[in-house]
Amino acid sequence: MKTIGILLFIVAGCCHGLVDICPGGEVKKVFGDCVKQHGGNKALITDWIAHKNAEDDNSKCFRTCAMKNCGWFDANGKLKKEVPERSAYALYGGDASKIPQIMEAGKKCLDTIQYDEKNMCNSGENFSRCIMGNCKKCSLNLSAAL
Hints:
It is built from seven helices and no strands. By secondary structure, the chain is mainly alpha-helical. It is globular.
């Protein structure tokens, strides 16, 4: 039953765009634009792919910029309810067996992250750190989404 659910999830995502990490497949453009906005250093991307903690505001804001520009945040600066599915699609690295674990971690994070009303960049980084921390054994792979 679990396998059928996973397959339906993947088919729905691929055929209907329900879990696009970035609508219209614009993730590379979004990453490029956000790198330019936050210092121009491509290490911002490689550090995120390597699951390193953001070291400064440029890193945090780059990550949040990418999430925001891909529609992960609502107008109030809160993560949308479909973010766990989008996270799973962005991080599963082609291994569908990881999707349920990543979704579970994403749901937990969506319910527990600390939002920073004054600095949205911290909110994005808090979600990023949360999902990485709650899914350590998932072998997350952001680079596959690019």
